[in-house]
């Protein structure tokens, strides 16, 4: 990946332990490789680097039913392309893809199966109604249920996040891309992630999320960050200096202070309400956007 903030340019020291894994074994079932070749590519081993996973169905679903990060779950439930995409995900031979394609695949898989969790449950208030949670820390809730059918196995959302995304890729920007169906998280994009454009997409997600002052801001003394970041602080840096250098480009007015690591940290609140569509009647009554 290219750009100002590539994985290869980041020095990320891992936490002593990742979030508690659910401990449930992945269930295997037969898999068929259904990976599309990039247009104009030749076939055979020499063209392996041109393999592209086909996320067109998911892309179409997102473009039809996601606006400004808000999801029309009822519309998704009626969309046949969504069912096709979920059925396609477990058939992909992910190991045949290059790194960016694999990362895009797993981000899409996490988000699609989270949407399916909401669609299948009928929940329209908060994902926390499905199981118990404590603050932003996930206990034995929906994140520990084997439901993600991908790459020939069945995974939990926690396994996808911690065993695959965080461990295999060591890419901090995943926290701005995977969405736990909550308004406090980064917004769900209205398009699928693609290996060819992944770096640009992740950079944009980071800019949008960090520019939201209700979630992240520097007030002249304290760097206030979302629990999305602070829960996985070690993914962004091992200490305040590394953390400050990572976030300094997003807070140019405080760049010198942040790069020196001379700042206390504060946590903003996290909104667990479902990232469903805006209610026009409530928006008109309040005179404010939701």
What does this structure look like?
The protein is an alpha+beta fold. The protein has a domain at 16-195. Helix content is 34%, strand content 10%. It has ten helices and twelve strands. The strands form five sheets. Strands 1-9-8 form a three-stranded antiparallel beta sheet. The chain has a three-stranded mixed beta sheet with strand order 10-11-12. A two-stranded antiparallel sheet has the order 2-3. Helix 1 runs antiparallel to helix 3 and helix 4 runs antiparallel to helix 5 (157-169). The two termini are 35 Å apart. The model is unreliable at 1-6, 8-50 and 282-290 (pLDDT under 50).
Put the structure in a nutshell.
The protein is an alpha+beta fold and 290 residues long. It has helices at residues 56-65, 73-77, 80-88, 99-121, 157-169, 198-210, 227-230, 240-247, 255-260, 280-286, and strands at 27-28, 36-37, 51-52, 66-67, 70-71, 133-134, 137-138, 148-150, 153-155, 217-218, 223-225, 265-267. Helices cover 34% and strands 10% of the residues.
Task: Set out the fold topology.
Blueprint: E1 27-28, E2 36-37, E3 51-52, H1 56-65, E4 66-67, E5 70-71, H2 73-77, H3 80-88, H4 99-121, E6 133-134, E7 137-138, E8 148-150, E9 153-155, H5 157-169, H6 198-210, E10 217-218, E11 223-225, H7 227-230, H8 240-247, H9 255-260, E12 265-267, H10 280-286
Parallel strand pairs: 11-12
Antiparallel strand pairs: 1-9, 2-3, 4-5, 6-7, 8-9, 10-11
Helix pairs in contact: 1-3, 4-5
């Amino acid at each position: 990946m290219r750009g100002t903030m590539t994985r290869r340019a980041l020095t990320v020291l891992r936490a002593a332990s990742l979030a508690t894994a659910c401990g449930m074994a992945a269930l295997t079932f037969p898999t068929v490789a259904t990976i599309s070749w990039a247009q104009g590519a030749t076939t055979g081993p020499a063209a392996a680097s041109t393999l592209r996973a086909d996320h067109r169905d998911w892309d179409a679903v997102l473009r039809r039913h996601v606006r400004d990060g808000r999801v029309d779950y009822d519309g998704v439930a009626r969309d046949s392309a969504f069912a096709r995409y979920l059925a396609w995900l477990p058939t992909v031979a992910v190991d045949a893809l290059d790194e960016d394609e694999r990362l895009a695949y797993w981000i899409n898989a996490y988000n699609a199966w989270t949407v399916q969790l909401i669609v299948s449950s009928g929940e329209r208030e908060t994902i926390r109604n499905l199981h118990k949670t404590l603050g932003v820390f996930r206990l034995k809730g929906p994140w520990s249920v084997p439901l993600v059918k991908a790459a020939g196995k069945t995974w939990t959302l926690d396994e996808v996040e911690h065993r695959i995304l965080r461990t295999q890729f060591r890419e901090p920007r995943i926290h701005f891309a995977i969405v736990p169906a909550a308004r406090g998280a980064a917004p769900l994009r209205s398009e699928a992630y693609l290996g060819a454009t992944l770096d640009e997409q992740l950079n944009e997600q980071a800019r949008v999320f960090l520019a939201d002052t209700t979630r992240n801001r520097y007030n002249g003394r304290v760097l206030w960050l979302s629990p999305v970041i602070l829960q996985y602080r070690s993914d962004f840096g091992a200490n305040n200096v590394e953390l400050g250098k990572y976030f300094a480009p997003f807070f140019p007015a405080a760049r010198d202070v942040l790069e020196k690591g001379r700042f206390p940290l504060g946590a903003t609140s996290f909104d667990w309400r479902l990232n469903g569509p805006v209610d026009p009647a409530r928006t008109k009554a309040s005179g404010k956007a939701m």
